[in-house]
Design brief:
This protein is about 10% helix and about 45% strand. It is mainly β and about 230 residues long. Strands 2, 4, 6, 7, 8, 10 and 13 form a seven-stranded mixed beta sheet that branches. Strands 5-9-3-1-11-12 form a six-stranded mixed beta sheet, with no helix packed on it. The longest helix is centred in the last third of the chain and has 21 residues.
């Protein structure tokens, strides 16, 4: 496990009741079906790709809710692949008095400080019916653009806000899981990542202009032939 042992920041005014535990954060291509494996995605150079971060608690009883979720997302490649983040939108459903989060903020911005998403923060002072519990929900929507061909591995880590939960019935640990099939990471170890990539984006070359032109000519000829037969 890679750990960047930077100083741990406080929760910036968040009042946390009960014990502290973590979340399970995964990526998927669907915003309606929760992922069961680490996402493997692809995007051509110059094109955009939208996918989703899902969240749930690591407690299966339904007695825990996420109070704060501070995350970074890094994209790294060993073969020259590159993507750039276009947008990162944290989902915040619920009416005026039942919002999932009291506030959200992308404090560090996009494509900054070595991260695609730098210090995205969501927190609540009191759980609601729309809080993140043990049922997976879409936490955020991420859109990226392919920049250079190759494989880009995505890694999630706690940001300075860190991660916390409220547990109404029992004491819990304070670790979270990023992706599937990997060891947990401390909620408060800012910048700590799991060993395995939490998602993989393969950037493929853009279609050659000549190939696009040939395809266009073929379609034109096909249409002309059909008109003559008519």
């Amino acid at each position: 496990m890679r750990k960047k042992m930077t100083p741990i920041a406080l929760l910036l005014g968040l009042a946390v009741a009960g014990s502290v535990q973590g979340a399970v954060i995964t990526f998927g291509s669907s915003n309606t079906i929760a992922p069961l494996t680490n996402a493997t995605l692809s995007v051509p150079v110059g094109q955009t790709l939208t996918f989703y971060a899902w969240a749930r608690t690591s407690d299966n009883t339904g007695n825990e809710a996420v109070n704060s979720l501070g995350l970074n997302i890094a994209g790294r490649s060993a073969n020259g692949g590159a993507i750039t983040a276009n947008s990162y939108v944290i989902d915040n459903p619920g009416g005026t008095f039942a919002k999932r989060w009291s506030g959200t903020n992308l404090l560090g911005g996009l494509n900054n400080g070595g991260y695609l998403v730098n210090d995205a923060r969501a927190l609540t002072t009191s759980p609601t019916a729309n809080s993140v519990i043990n049922t997976p929900v879409v936490y955020a929507t991420l859109t990226v653009t392919g920049v250079a061909p190759g494989t880009v591995n995505l890694f999630v880590s706690p940001s300075p806000l860190t991660i916390s939960e409220t547990n109404t019935t029992s004491t819990a640990n304070n670790t979270s899981n990023f992706g599937f099939g990997d060891a947990a990471v401390s909620n408060t170890a800012v910048g700590a990542e799991s060993t395995l990539a939490d998602a993989v984006v393969t950037v493929v070359p853009a279609p050659e202009p000549a190939a696009v032109g040939v395809l266009g000519l073929g379609l034109t000829a096909f249409g002309f032939a059909r008109r003559r037969r008519a």
